[in-house]
Design goal:
This protein is an alpha+beta fold and about 375 residues long. It folds into two domains: about 140 residues, PurM-like, N-terminal domain (60s Ribosomal Protein L30, Chain: A, 2-Layer Sandwich), CATH 3.30.1330; about 200 residues, Phosphoribosyl-aminoimidazole Synthetase, Chain A, domain 2. Helix content is about 30%, strand content about 25%. The protein is built from twelve helices and 14 strands. Strands 3-6-4-5 form a four-stranded mixed sheet, covered by helices on one side. It has a four-stranded antiparallel sheet with strand order 8-10-7-11, sandwiched between helices. A hairpin with a 2-residue loop joins strand 13 and strand 14. The N and C termini lie far apart (about 90 Å). It catalyses: 2-formamido-N(1)-(5-O-phospho-beta-D-ribosyl)acetamidine + ATP = 5-amino-1-(5-phospho-beta-D-ribosyl)imidazole + ADP + phosphate + H(+). One of its GO terms (cellular component) is cytosol. Belongs to the AIR synthase family.
Length: about 375
């Protein structure tokens, strides 16, 4: 009779390509960063089946409404994977998810994340989650849970995708939106930090066709030592905290907000305007940052042809009463966000001639918006 083997029995799940030990190590590496986002409202620790959040503070609201949002980062993750730099993708995820919540005037409460990957590399997963935690801390959001799923055979060993969902709260009497917008309101543009997390399929198409490598130096996109990959991974600017301060100080004069994501400036602004109103966004009030111009030139494109894809330097829009426009722009500037007037809300028939208007978007039957004029640097050329 053969003697029993002293070797540990093989783990069939590991043999199938799923490394649970690596997943446990990833949790250990990220745990301290996640905990730093927890206030006294978060009950329990990291690793539970569900996150618990104390909602006692809702008693202070007359009629608390929960706001929720979910999103991902999109194909920007392909650039992070190409240059093996993963510490900023989490910030992008928070920007795409949490900054949607503040659009209705809500304060974010908590967020969860989901990372699907072909192989769990603990350090890589920890880098991603640390970025999410940093964004949550900056926006005042508790990161109360998440999931890392290993999908061998479905995703390559270095492939991953990230998604998240967040919940916030706003009093029913303080919800921002089209119902509060009035004729004569000023449309303020808030500067973006760059591409943010939209239009990267076009970016990657342009870069690929031009034969550019992400490790190539890109002096036109940053400092002398910046590579294309590093420049294109510039994190999404987070607007939640400055906008919540603006609402707290000028709440009755802040009527609507719009997050400029997929679809560009016109379509996203149209979503938060009431039907029957229109805005001409004046291109001459700003110059798109270099990254947009360099990419457009590289792809043989006119900047105006990318307006439905990229934010072109405007990451958010605030619709405010005319008498508070200067004060709002000044308050945002003190928070490090350049803001300027790009248009005024009008009511009545659309003006004839010129560019076509975008009217509503994403299923919303809203107002009408178009971009007019010539970008600042183009006019001076």
């Amino acid at each position: 009779m053969a003697s029993p083997s002293r070797d540990a029995p093989a783990n069939p799940y590991t043999e199938a390509g799923v490394d649970t030990a690596a997943g446990d190590l990833a949790v250990e590496l990220m745990k301290s960063a996640v905990r730093r986002t927890h206030g006294p409202e978060v009950l329990g620790g990291v690793g539970g089946f569900a996150g618990l959040f104390d909602a006692t503070a809702f008693k202070a609201y007359d009629k608390p409404l929960l706001a929720t949002s979910t999103d991902g980062v999109g194909t920007k993750v392909a650039i992070a994977q190409a240059i093996d730099k993963h510490d900023t993708i989490g910030l992008d995820l928070v920007g795409m998810v949490v900054d949607d919540i503040v659009v209705v005037g809500a304060k974010p409460l908590f967020m969860t994340d989901y990372i699907a990957c072909g192989k769990v590399v603990p350090e890589r997963i920890a880098d991603i989650v640390r970025g999410i935690a940093a964004g949550c801390a900056e926006t005042g959001t508790a990161l109360v849970g998440g999931e890392t799923a290993e999908h061998p055979g479905l995703l390559g060993p270095d492939d991953y995708d990230v998604a998240g969902a967040a919940t916030g709260v706003v009093d029913a009497n303080h919800v921002l939106g089209a119902e509060r917008v009035r004729t004569g309101d000023v449309v303020l543009a808030l500067a973006s930090s760059g591409l943010h997390s939209n239009g990267y399929s076009l970016v990657r198409h342009i870069v690929s066709r031009a034969g550019v490598q992400y490790g190539d130096r890109a002096p036109d996109l940053g400092s002398h030592g910046t590579t294309w990959g590093e420049a294109l991974l510039e994190p999404t600017r987070l607007y939640t905290a400055p906008l919540l301060r603006l609402i707290a100080d000028h709440g009755d004069r802040v009527h609507a907000l719009s997050h400029i994501t997929g679809g560009g400036i016109a379509a996203n602004v149209a979503r938060v305007l009431p039907r029957g109103t229109w805005v001409d966004v004046d291109r001459s009030t700003w110059s798109p940052p270099p990254v947009f111009r360099v990419l457009a030139d590289l792809g043989g494109l006119d900047l105006t042809s990318t307006e439905g894809t990229w934010n072109l330097g405007i990451g958010f829009v605030a619709v405010v009463s005319a008498d508070k426009a200067d004060a709002a722009a000044s308050a945002l500037a003190q928070d490090g966000i350049a803001a300027w007037q790009v248009g005024v809300v009008n009511e009545g028939p659309l003006p004839e001639g010129g560019a076509a208007f975008e009217q509503g978007a994403k299923g919303v039957d809203g107002g009408a918006v178009r971009l007019v004029g010539t970008y600042a640097d183009d006019a001076a050329a």
